[in-house]
Design a protein that fits this description.
Length: 433
Amino acid sequence: MQSLSARWISRAVAFLASLLLLVALPARAQLSIEITGAGANRIPIAIVPFPGEAALPPGITSVVRADLERSGLFRGLEVPPLTPQPTEASNVDYAEWRSRLADALVLGSVAARPDGRYEVRFRLFDVVKQTPLGGVAYTLAKDQARATAHRIADYVYEKLTGVKGVFSTRIAYVVKRGNRYELQIADADGADEETALASLEPIISPAWAPDGKRLAYVSFENKKPVVYVHSLLDGKRHVVANFKGSNSAPAWSPDGTKLAVSLSRDNGSQIYLINPDGSGVRRLTYSSAIDTEPFFSPDGQFIYFTSDRGGSPQIYRMPATGGDAQRITFEGSYNVSPRVSPDGKSLAYIARNSEGKFQVALLDLTTQQVQILTDSDRDESPSFAPNGRMILYATVIDGRGVLSAVSIDGRVKQRLTVNAGDVREPAWGPFIK
């Protein structure tokens, strides 16, 4: 069995190249998303094209529909051209929409303003109960059409499911094209991608700050793993941990005031706390084993981490201030990469089964029940959506690195790919405040 430290070394060697490019360069390809599994009882929803939306390419309603369908919980109905075009102010003929098999209906409009901006209005209707569920008006610039559509989709999703939508959130991931590595930031649907960092050396372990404005990550530009914090507002970054040996696996505390990292500065990988500016280093674990991959509980009280202190890699939990560690995983001989759900009730991680497959597992922290969510065999780097309903992870399909997402019940599945590139190291960002 390969040790955790050997895994880090082999990972670095596999990703080896030679020169850092510190300029943010335009991305050359966008993530494409394929829905490979959906919920059993999807809500049929009619999203009628908004009059005037042609002035805001790619439009509003097409993005809203794609968002909702991608969730696996909605089925967008085909809406034929209607004359006159209904708007949010129109009287709704519920019987007609019920005959079209719609359970929900979205009507809206787009109007140009004298100041060059646009106003988008919409209303959501429950066709079955024959009642309006509310609506919102947004004022936006032309280049904010997609972002506004995501906000509308979030509104519809929350009204109809009771759960906050994540269509307005962002994801980070690393694309490898030839010998070039790009740390990408994109909308949750893979659109509007930007390159935060390009390098001919590996970039791994991106982790979002709770404010959504910074990323911590590990770069090998100095021929060794070093932890950086990168501002997404101005592109500036600084070194957080560049000690002797390995500096890896950054994880933010829920309040954004601390990072937990794995350092080998004192011989052997151990868990430390450090301030985001690199000050205040404090050691938390003192085992003779390899302790790595820390992750805070949502309340900030505990840190989950991977350790082979029991003879094989398993997941443990300790107080965030340090102290005795409690073993959390017991099924199987290899469980790594802990990620706690936003509500603190579940733990996603990578489990190796008896056939040698690495798959995303979900542990109910109350009942201790374990569910394997994926049917792939080379999964890594799980990351919860901020509403806790989906898990983003990396895997390998036909010899190529791709991102996938799976719902916490295992029913809804997506695959995210980039043409001519391997995609790895996903991290789902927080809600936008």
